Amino acid sequence: MYEAPDASFHGFTYQNGTYAAMDYPGATDTNLNGINDRGDMIGSYSTDAEAHYHGFVFKDGAFTSFDVPFVTSLTNTFPQGINNHGEIVGDYYDSSGYHLGFSAEYQ
Questions:
Q1: What pTM does this model have?
Q2: What is the DSSP string of 51-89?
């Protein structure tokens, strides 16, 4: 992740000596946090000025957004790692402001 001059955050990849931008479509901020041996990537993104973050998986050239179930869209979901079986771990803030962990399976 890097911070641009406008204070927005962007993800990037580095492969074969080349850097490439990696941003969730329409996001104002993107954080890449993990990659597995299959090349599946996880991270978080925000599309609003109040910086509410959602999780995403990037697999086979496509983004899939997700939030921790049973919390409102005004909370934050931060996936931190993905293993080769598609199991994701991370943390989130619930609507009461509690900081909690989660694990989920992605197929």
A1: 0.88
A2: --EEEEEEETTEEEEE--TTS-TTSEEEEEEE-TT-EEE
